[in-house]
Amino acid sequence: MIPIPGRNRQILQMRKDGIPQGEVARRFKLSPSRIYLIERRDAADRSMGERRAKLREGIRAVDDLHRMWPVNDLADAIGLIVVTRKRLLDYFEQTGKGQISVRELMNMCLDPPVEGLWAS
User: Fold this and answer.
1) CA-CA distance, 78 to 55, in Å (whole number)?
2) Could you identify which of 4, 46, 53, 80 might form a hypothetical disulfide with 85, taking C-beta atoms 3.0 to 4.6 angstroms apart as the criterion?
3) pLDDT single digits (tens) 41-79
């Protein structure tokens, strides 16, 4: 039995090679609609990867930790898992805040320094 990620890569390659959806579905004992969903998910993942790369490039080009960015853009740029991303966006929606700086986001995510830990 082929693990699902490997199977999906094979399915996507076969479709890229022009093999009809029905034939691919029969080969893997899946429905044609499942093949369609695998292709659609791959396209969405590639699109998000491109968006993430552009956002990161833009943030690096500005090189200003205090510049305000739309929360949605920063959440996409850092590539949060779906649940974490949703909770972060919900939090900012509840607080009425639509923008955040990279510095502010870092401060939210990092523990504050512990006083006296490294003192001599």
Assistant:
1) 9
2) 80
3) 999 999 999 999 999 999 999 999 999 999 999 999 999
d(CA 104, CA 2): 44
In a domain, 42, yes or no: no
- The reply to whether 80 falls in a domain is yes
Please give the DSSP secondary-structure letter assigned to residue 103.
Answer: H
Per-residue pLDDT of 2-46, as tens digits, reads: 788 899 999 999 999 999 999 999 999 999 999 999 999 999 999
Within a domain: 54: no
- Residues 76/89, Cβ–Cβ less than 8 Å: no
Query: Alpha-carbon torsion 27, 28, 31, 33, what sign?
Result: negative
Q: Are strands 68-70 and 99-101 parallel, antiparallel or unpaired?
A: antiparallel
Which residue segment(s) compose the domain that 85 sits in? 64-112
Give the separation between CA 25 and CA 21, rounded to whole angstroms.
Answer: 6
pTM of the model: 0.73
Q: How many domains does the chain have?
A: 1
Domain assignment present for 14 = no
